[in-house]
Specification:
xenobiotic transmembrane transporter activity, 5-stranded antiparallel sheet, Multidrug efflux transporter AcrB TolC docking domain, DN and DC subdomains, membrane, AcrB_DN_DC_subdom, elongated, alpha+beta, Alpha-Beta Plaits
């Protein structure tokens, strides 16, 4: 624990209240008394002395041993402090009130050290609070935890782990549906825990912790870790079914796809390379996701190339001659029968869904290969039409608007209200909330206030099962409150740079040089904006200006009467606010000591003006003789941007009319005639956020470039990878459609998901095109190679895609897991689900067709190069241009030069 802030605590103190008349009659003043008493109660080190052979530390002590000794302290000739003051040991006067559950309360805000673990600290705090309940000194007290960051973190992590386990189960079921073998499903599924174990081991030695983002990276890997294993296992089985023995099938099956799955894994890892070029939250998210994702995927590659072939070798049946004829046991027979029946059910499901889909896909691909231009035109039309609607409706936001677990209201009392008046109103508001407890489903409520205003908070008994939303509850309470003239009740609180809640708002930023003109303009605009339909009201400013009275020292008079302006400030401060004197020590406890005038001597302006101020000649002058009291415009803070003053107006908008109201406000803002030097500008927070979003999309663009270079290395061509790159923009359409269908906006974590999506969606295309090139290198025509490759890769492509999508579905449905205080990973999950869905469907159709376009372009380029070469060299035969692979030889006729 680093710090504890106490609000509303009633601590006892020794209060010295001076009688102004008695002080003046004694020829004294509060400034001199405070100075004298402040230096009269101390203990200090005074060096060392020798006592014989011993060296002793010397301490000078001048302390009061009792309150009565303080009363008997002489402050003037024949004048004791008790003669001119009342000295009491009592609870200090508070200018702040707090109540919880209709009882007086005080709040503790506990803050942890920077390197401390939040969940561990919160657990210890909760345990300590429980132990304190048995303390007899706290008999009758009740503690309520309003916010527990550790509980929020634990709930969110538990939700994420639960989603991960469900996602793993879904991935296993998908694998069994396609593989229809318990052993093979188990072998491929084991790649998930093995890869995660390796990733966690590396994270441990790298000093990483399990937090929201590292766990999110691991949950993402649940669906991705089986991709490489599925491709390897499927290729091994294909070769084994083709007649190869199990040893050759395992060796060649893994070897044929080794380079392809290595490159597909690297395309996912390479998206993290631009992280050093990104700033803001995007860099933070990518950095935390990098280690778990990259290490786990690298481990999955190792598992796929080493562990999977070995396990498949051990499980595949040996040659018929080597099999033994041992009689199986009864348990084995029953299991085999059950497996056979289940296999039959799964086969019928697969044939009825994916088998039919595969056959229809083959016919569709043949149709479009014969009519390639029709597909291009159709894609362009669909791309333009389908992209327009979701991209218009889905906004890019900083965070998701998660439903809050209660309501909050902020109140400003009428100017000039006293603490007692504010307390009376808030007690009435508390009774109103208590009467609505059953209607709103409230578990509890808390309020705090001073004389200028305060806050009302209520939280639901079960936020996930209430029938009324937080916003509806807020409006219901606001309707029932008795608002007195001059009072303002707000449903949100603003700061100059960010909103504290998720209610729909419209910020207006005013910039200017003259602060007074800026404030006057803002007040006029507020009245104008409130007349617009759809505007509910203003959000409460976090720093409402107080009522302020300025005492202006007349320097000429002060110099004439030899009055020090600093002494004037000290007299007023000591008289009204009081002066803290050195603490009084009693039985090991420190007790605060404060001196000030009694209440009747400081309650109004006329008393203030009669305060006596000492002069440098030893006399005294009334405060009114050297000062003028003037009411001043008060400001707690002044915000500036680019050396210009900033004033923010935040309007609350009616739910469901945000777009229309925003358009009306924007139209009005463009027609406002502002004073000279005052301008309307963009939201400061929005500018910074837009910069962060721009940086993330730049990182996404760099990721595309890196992936393109990797594929160029794999295919030994920089033309063919373009057919795979096309799946990236098409997958982005799926991202927006997914968010549009779910009614969600795209947040920063969702944009991070787009960066990761770029590295994931190209994987199936890489494996497909690599296999096409292999078939063509073996002498097969392009059309036959495309037809055979797409048919054989249909199952592994569908398997890898559905396992990844299935792994993300539970996470998308879980929300944040920590209520409105937790980090929402909904947008991240929906980004991968929507992008992978469209990318998978389009990979099997768009990539083969566009492969033929780019292959034709490559042949045209080769013919052009041939003609260019033919002008300057003499050839033995026509040059031959073929697709080359590192594991295969290709004979090329070389030109014979002179």
């Amino acid at each position: 624990v680093a710090n504890i802030q106490l609000d509303g605590m009633e601590e006892k103190e020794i209060l010295i209240e001076l009688d102004r008349r008695k002080v003046a009659a004694s020829g004294l003043n509060i400034y001199q008394l405070a100075q004298d008493l402040g230096g009269d109660n101390f203990t200090m080190s005074s060096g060392t002395v020798l006592e014989g052979a011993n060296k002793l530390a010397l301490r000078s002590i001048a302390r009061y041993d009792s309150v009565d000794a303080l009363r008997q302290r002489m402050v003037g000739p024949s004048v004791r402090l008790g003669d001119i003051a009342t000295i009491r040991y009592e609870e200090e006067e508070k200018d702040y009130r707090a109540r919880a559950m209709s009882e007086p309360a005080f709040a503790l805000v506990v803050m942890k050290e920077g390197d401390a673990n939040a969940t561990e600290v919160c657990r210890k705090l909760v345990a300590q609070v429980e132990r304190m309940k048995s303390d007899p000194r706290l008999s009758g007290f009740e503690s309520i935890v309003l916010f527990n960051q550790g509980a929020v973190i634990e709930e969110s992590l538990a939700t994420m782990l639960q989603s991960g386990m469900i996602g793993g189960i879904i991935a296993g079921m998908v694998l069994f549906l396609f593989l229809r073998r318990f052993r093979m499903t188990l072998i491929v599924s084991l790649s998930i825990p093995l890869s995660l174990l390796i990733g966690l081991t590396v994270m441990f030695f790298a000093g990483e912790t399990l937090n929201f983002l590292t766990l999110l990276g691991l949950m993402l890997c649940v669906g991705l870790l089986v991709d490489n294993s599925v491709v390897v296992a499927e290729n091994i089985f294909r070769l084994h079914r083709g007649g190869a023995d199990r040893r050759d099938a395992c060796i060649h099956g893994a070897g044929e796809v080794a380079l392809a799955i290595t490159m597909s894994t690297l395309t996912t890892i390479v998206v993290f390379l631009p992280v050093s070029l990104v700033e803001g939250p995007g860099q933070f998210f990518l950095t935390r996701l990098a280690i778990p994702v990259c290490v786990s995927l690298a481990a999955s590659l190792l598992v796929a190339l080493v562990f999977i072939p070995l396990c498949v070798y051990l499980t595949l049946p040996a040659a018929a001659a080597a099999r033994t004829a041992a009689e199986p046991g009864r348990g084995t027979v029953l299991f085999l029968r059950f497996h056979e029946r289940l296999n039959g059910i799964m086969r019928r499901i697969y044939d009825g869904v994916f088998g039919r889909l595969n056959r229809n896909y083959n016919r569709m691909l043949a149709f479009f290969l014969a009519r390639r231009l029709d597909l291009v035109i159709s894609l362009l039309v669909v791309f333009v039409i389908t992209a327009a609607l979701p991209m218009k409706e889905v906004k890019v936001v900083e965070s998701q608007d998660e439903e809050a677990g209660g309501f909050s209201l902020y109140v400003e009392m009428p100017p000039g209200s006293t603490l007692e008046e504010a307390e009376t109103w808030f007690l009435g508001a508390e009774q109103t909330i208590e009467g609505m407890q059953e209607e709103l489903g409230l578990e509890g409520w808390f309020l705090s206030h001073d004389e200028e205003g305060g806050e009302l908070h209520g939280w639901f008994d079960n936020p996930h099962s209430v029938k009324i939303t937080a916003r509806e509850a807020t409006e219901r309470v606001k309707e029932e409150l008795h608002v007195i003239p001059g009072m303002e009740v707000f449903t949100g609180q603003e700061s100059e740079t960010e909103d504290e809640n998720s209610i729909a708002t419209y910020p207006v930023m005013l910039y200017g040089e003259d602060i007074d003109i800026l404030e006057e303009t803002a007040q006029n605009l507020e009245k104008m904006f409130l007349q617009i339909d759809g505007v509910l009201g203003l959000q409460r400013r976090s720093d409402p200006p107080p009522n302020e009275l300025g005492l202006v020292v007349d320097r000429e008079l002060a110099q004439r009467y030899q009055v020090n302006p600093q002494v004037v400030a000290g007299v007023v401060g000591y008289a009204l606010r009081g002066a803290d004197l050195p603490k009084y020590y009693d039985d090991g406890k420190e007790i605060p000591v404060r001196i000030r005038f009694q209440e009747e001597d400081r309650e109004n302006l006329s008393n203030l003006e009669n305060f006596m101020v000492p002069t440098q000649t030893g006399g005294a002058m009334p405060l009114s003789a050297v000062t003028d009291a003037t009411f001043l415009p008060a400001r707690n803070r002044i915000f500036r941007l680019d050396k210009r003053a900033l004033r923010r107006i935040t309007l609350e908008l009616e739910d469901g009319t945000e777009e229309e109201t925003t358009a009306r406000l924007a139209s009005l803002s463009s027609r406002i005639d502002l004073p000279e030097g005052v301008t309307l500008g963009a939201n400061v927070t929005r500018i910074s956020f837009n910069d962060d979003v721009g940086a993330m999309f730049f990182a996404a663009l760099l990721s595309v470039v890196f992936i393109y270079l990797l594929m160029g290395f794999l295919f030994e061509s920089f033309i063919l990878p373009l057919s795979i790159i096309l799946t990236i923009p098409l997958s982005i359409i799926g991202v927006y459609w997914m968010h549009f269908a779910a009614g969600k906006d795209l947040d920063m974590l969702g944009i991070v998901g787009i960066v990761l999506l770029i590295g994931v969606v190209v994987n199936n295309g890489i494996v497909l095109i690599d296999y096409v090139n292999r078939l063509r290198a073996g002498g097969m025509s392009r059309t036959e190679a495309l037809a055979q490759a797409t048919d054989r890769r249909f199952r592994p492509i569908m398997m890898t895609a559905i396992t990844t999508i299935g792994g993300m579905i539970p996470l998308a449905l879980a929300g944040s897991g920590g209520g409105d205080d937790g980090l929402s990973y909904t947008s991240f999950s929906m980004t991968l689900i929507g992008g992978m869905t469209t990318a998978t469907l389009l990979t099997l159709l768009v990539v083969p067709v566009f492969y033929t376009f780019f292959d034709d372009a490559r042949e045209v380029l080769a013919e052009t190069m041939k003609r260019s070469l033919g002008k300057g060299v003499r050839l033995k035969s026509d040059p031959v241009f073929v697709d080359c692979h590192p594991q295969q030889a290709a004979k090329v006729a070389l030109p014979e030069t002179d």
